[in-house]
Amino acid sequence: MKPNIVEINIVRAFAILAVLLIHVTAGPRTEVPWGSLSAPFYFTANQLSMFAVPLFLMLSGLVLFYRYHDDWSMGHAWTFYKKRLKFIVIPYLVWSVIYYFFYQAAYRQPFGFDPVQFAKLLIWGDASYHLYFMAIIIQLYLVFPLLMGLMRLLRMKALHILLLGLIIEGAFMYIHYNVYSFEHKATLIANYFAVFCAGAAIGMRYESFANRYRNVWWTGPLAVIIVFMYMLFLLSSQAGAQYPMTAYIVAYNVYAILVGISLIWAGKIIVEQKARILPWLLAFGSASFGIYFIHPAIQTTVGKLIGQELGSPYYHVYQIGLFATMLAVSFAVVHYTKKIKLSWLLWGK
Prior knowledge:
mainly alpha
């Protein structure tokens, strides 16, 4: 059994912080009129945090291929699916039911349950705005054993996996923008296949990759340069400039991958130096899946109780307080209930 990669939980901690920031700034980004002093801050914070979803998928590829790339047979498939069914699919079903009724209560809608409607919501993760990620993850787990079988059959190396990811995502994007527009593009795994396979390639060579963290300093600055270009694309497009969609896609994916690499190596330094913040980061990272599930309920509840409309003198203070509340309450609930029997039904593993 291979040792766990401790620094992965540190990366997850930063990634889930970015998820919270995306959701807190999503409303102000569209509500605050462009031209006001605060609009650029909300816009920038929202866009800089967009690495979170591809980074989580990159980490999934890293962990799966680190664990299985040299120790896989089709006999592993049953155990693999059984574990994911228990710790991924069942919590997803539970939270889909919770949010199905939660939003009825929150928005004072008539209570009811339509099995057909609920089944349709499950397919694309539409029971709540954030559950689309679970639809992507489930697709990933469905194709993973097939991908591993292909890798073993063709004796694919890390570079081959990376090229495969680029080809599949490139073909998917070409079809979407030139042949057939997929209605649920953002919920299809092919939309993220390059970052997933980038993580897979790193996982296959993780020991040599991890040993380079002392000598490679340029990934962080390069990520800053790439995201600066990405932000220029976005901001100039607000004024009417037009760029090829390829420019946005490449910049977005490269930014997410470079942030992931930088955070992994930063995590190794934090672990090595046993920084004071290390226990908190590890705890926060280990709770990230549960935080992901519960934080929209906290956000909606706080908004219903003390939400501030645009124009209120407390609007910006509220947004900061909302972020702090989501962070503290979601972490506390998950962290202190994870050891309770059957808590995996809510928080997975």
